[in-house]
Design goal:
By secondary structure, this protein is of the alpha+beta class. 30% of the residues lie in helices and 27% in strands. Strand 18 and strand 19 form a beta hairpin. Helix 4 runs parallel beside helix 6 and helix 8 packs parallel to helix 12.
Length: 422
């Protein structure tokens, strides 16, 4: 098992290019199942989650390869086993995304209940409700979701809102299934995240007829078939936000290439409010901090609100702010396993239900810490960059799920991170 050994404090300075979006790539990989033939996806990051999803598609019958230039090629000519196996799907929640495409193409799908990060309860009932509205018959058997539609799917008006807002993967599942349904489907309270808009644009390029892209009301006119696609994945806004926080927490200055600020207005607004400069430049931006970090309040919400996937990173940053800050988690109210680990590094955090009170401290102090999930591990790395001494982050396989060799990208701009096997 690998660990990170991080020497701090450091000041980051230089340029970093943002990779393609993991959260956009995975549903688009699933969308390739909707059609027979070879699709080519450009800009897909080389991450463990991508590799696992590729193996999942391979078990279905697809051939998944990377070309010499890094393009991801998915040949979905043959789907001979529409089963999402437990041993693979348990490792990542996005595995559930094959349910809708398999059902639409094959008329039947068996997919294990998904796994993923330990960030609280994330039921798939809304996914299943939406597919049932399209005419699927669904039951659970031995931990598997069994969905059948032998006579095909039929369009319908569907409401996908849940207790914590819209469901991103649920919207993706129902949207993909609806492209091949008979007639018109209207998805009300659809997720508006850029990754869903990007998926819809990809589906339209495949021949789907989707309107209302980027809004909470998607209208899908079903078509009889789709075509393979060549498509480029958008930059990863969560990776970009993480590197923005890296510049801020180290009082540094980073130029981020391939960064779409239009997708990150809530993030940029919070950074500016606490004293961080974010300026558009070229194909990205420059992020810098020279003064003190001001206290601030953060409430996570579905897009266009502040993303839950950056809550842990901002908690690490606000730990060094002047005064008290408040972080409220409204998407995954139990997503606070990083609180105890940051407190081990001398942060002053107090959890009260879905809220954490952050008392700013003058400095963080290095300590051995344990990563519990993908974004928590990123927060611990950021804290390690700013802390005095040597921080050891255990279970870095979590961070490899969403950040491609993060140490090799931050070390050239001033970080001191070594990967060691234990």
């Amino acid at each position: 098992m690998d660990v990170f050994r991080i020497e701090g404090p450091v000041r980051l300075s230089g340029a970093v290019s943002i990779n393609g979006s993991k959260n956009a790539s995975l549903p688009i990989m699933a969308a390739a199942v909707l059609t027979a033939g070879k699709s080519v996806l450009r800009g897909v990051p080389n991450l463990s989650d991508i590799s696992v999803f590729g193996r999942l598609l391979g078990r279905l019958g697809c051939q998944v390869t990377r070309s010499a230039n890094g393009d991801l090629c998915i040949d979905s000519t043959v789907i001979d086993r529409p089963v999402g196996e437990y041993e693979i799907v348990r490792r990542m929640r996005a595995g559930i995304c094959i349910l809708g495409p398999l059902l639409a193409r094959c008329g039947r799908a068996e997919v294990s209940m998904p796994g993923g990060c330990a960030i609280g309860d994330r039921p798939v009932n809304i996914h299943l409700k939406g597919l049932q509205e399209l005419g699927a018959q669904i039951h659970l058997k031995n931990g598997y979701i069994v969905a059948e539609a032998p006579n095909g799917l039929t369009g319908k008006d569907i409401f996908l809102g849940g207790p914590f807002g819209s469901t991103v993967l649920g919207t993706a599942n129902v949207l993909m299934a609806a492209t091949l349904a008979k007639g018109r489907t209207i998805i009300e309270s659809a997720a508006c995240e850029p990754e869903i808009a990007h998926l819809a644009s990809c589906l339209n390029k495949m021949g789907a007829r989707i309107s209302g892209i980027g809004s909470p009301r998607l209208i899908i006119e079903g078509v009889s078939q789709l075509q393979p696609v060549e498509f480029e994945v958008i930059p990863d806004r969560i990776e970009a936000g993480t590197f923005m926080v890296a510049a801020a927490i180290t009082a540094g200055e980073l130029k981020l290439h391939n960064c779409r600020l239009d997708d990150m207005m809530a993030i940029v607004d919070k950074l500016r409010n606490i004293g961080v400069t974010v300026e558009t430049e070229g194909d990205g931006c420059v992020v810098a901090r020279s003064g003190a970090i001001k206290a601030g309040d953060v409430t996570t919400q579905p897009y266009p609100g502040f993303p839950t996937d950056l809550q842990a990173q901002f908690m690490a940053l606000l730990s060094l702010a002047e005064g008290n800050s408040v972080i409220i988690e409204k998407v995954f109210p139990d997503r606070f396993m990083h609180v105890a680990e940051l407190n081990r590094m001398a942060a002053n955090l107090r959890k009260e239900g879905p809220t954490v009170i952050v008392g700013g401290v003058e400095k963080l102090i290095a300590a051995p810490v344990m990563a519990s999930d993908l974004r928590a591990s990123a927060a611990l790395v950021l804290a390690g960059l700013a802390a005095e001494g040597t921080t050891v982050v255990n279970r870095v396989y979590h961070i490899d799920r969403g950040y491609e060799r993060i140490e090799e990208r931050l070390n050239p701009v001033g970080a001191k991170i070594s990967r060691e096997s234990i």
